[in-house]
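Q: How do we represent a protein-ligand complex in a form that can be generated token by token?
A: Start from the inputs.
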Amino acid sequence: MQCDVCGHSIERKPYRAIIEGAKMTVCEECAKLGSVSWEAPHVQRTVMKKVASPLRIPLKKSKPDLEPTQTLELIGNLSLRLRKAREKLGLSHEDLGRKIGERISVLRKIESGKMVPDNKLASKLEHELKIKLLVPLSEPKIKSVSLSTPREATLGDIAQIKRKKVEESEERKPS
Ligand SMILES: [Zn+2]
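Then emit the structure tokens for the protein with zinc ion bound:
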């Protein structure tokens, strides 16, 4: 089991988190980056499926055995975000370079926008600075964001919603 964000192997139990609108299986550290996280994927998946039945997003897709490098791309404004995050943590280029095993000159270039880190390096930076630099290529943001936190739904609610959806699809007019 590998973390979708940093690529490290997950030693303890995997976390599921919604990060930048995408569902990912992540390690404990990276789970903090997400807006929503939970520890019991099967329960949550059932609930979400029911609430979000019209969209039919293939949920399994977010748990690939692929390398993170194949499904992620860098977000814009990377250099700025990087510098802000680093300064917030009070790290110098030297500190950061030492932590992630990267040359200081490389970090400087990235922060000044002269260079783009590869995904591996970006992952390390993400993990070390607790920020998000990579977003999934596959899933469009809007859809999964609207899915991620529908609202607090009880089991009764869900049953109702489901029933309502069925009615609606049978005859499409408000009574
Ligand atoms: Zn991680």
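The CA atoms of residues 43 and 99 lie 37 Å apart. The longest strand covers residues 15-19.
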